[in-house]
Write a structure and sequence with these properties.
Helix content: 25-40%
Oligomer: single chain
Radius of gyration: 21 Å
Largest sheet: 8 strands, antiparallel
Distance between the termini: 63 Å
Strand content: 15-25%
Length: 372
Amino acid sequence: MQLFKKIKNMAQREQTQQILAELKTLAKNNPKKFILDSFALLGEGKSFEDNQIIGNAKLNELGLHRLRVQWASYMAERRRAYLSHFVDQADAQQFLHQGFILKENYLPEHEFKALQKELLEQPLNAREMLQGDTVTRRMALDDVALKQRPVTQKLLNDQGWKSLLNYVASFDLQPMYYVQSIISHVRKAKPDPQTHLHSDTFHSSVKAWLFLTDVKEDEGPFVYAPGSHRVTEKRLQWEYEKSCEISKANDILTRRGSFRVTSQELETLGYNKPKAFAVKKNTLVIADTYGFHARGQSVRPSTRIELWAYARRNPFLPWVGMDIFKLPILNQKLVPIYWQGLDILEKRYQRHNPWKNVGQRYANESAVIRSK
């Protein structure tokens, strides 16, 4: 009876009535889009531009975005509490305080040299994206590539490696794997937008870098604000204010749900100053990219090369497993499927695909794409 009373009281609140009225109006105006946007709302959807519910000014004034951030954080904490049993507690503590796990000399020297040989001295199917003055090249580590690279395949199948990624992601999942090259100053243009501190989305997600070359502090290192993965009351208020002002945002990536943050805002939020990962090769960094991060500025033409992993799942799921992408028929074909999907969307529906096919390439080659 107490539960029914609580539900009845909630339904009678003025705020709840306002939310229901706004949702009813949206559903009436465009029923098909409302259904699609509702599914995105209950999952990873983050774009304030494309989703009429997520980007609804009235709903966000009533606390929609803030609620999504808060609930996603709560669920991630619950999942990590379980996954923490599968990682070294020193690594778990480092993550809880910093938002990343840093491990120098990750592989034995002979294994790392063999990995370098496989990934740097053999070409791979590649795509490039030009942003500002910088090209990001990603080369697929799919089933075809891995059959020819046993050392790489052994690493990606290693349970210790997978447990670290799963813990930071808060899911037992299958990442996409690439060799990634960041090639700076390929043309005269505005700076790479990825050099602005930002959060990838409203919830925890994982990216990992096993650096295949040394990274200098002034040559585009990965940058992260330690502790900024934590959802504090100040952060929730900041997220709320951003969501209410989203229509005024000049930055398109912010409007698409990847909020940019200034140095002054970072300080006000109480987070630590950004740390630049000027590291030696064979250093592993795994980070929760809800935390504020960026690509550091490069003062000269440079190339940063890494084995790179990325994964993101529905943040509201209560379970850690059941990832369909781990199925043998899919787990080493994710990148080709993703690329093919982008090509189909561009060809059939005129959706711009920023990832251009540049054929077989070596990781340390000069950029192919140099203009839009």
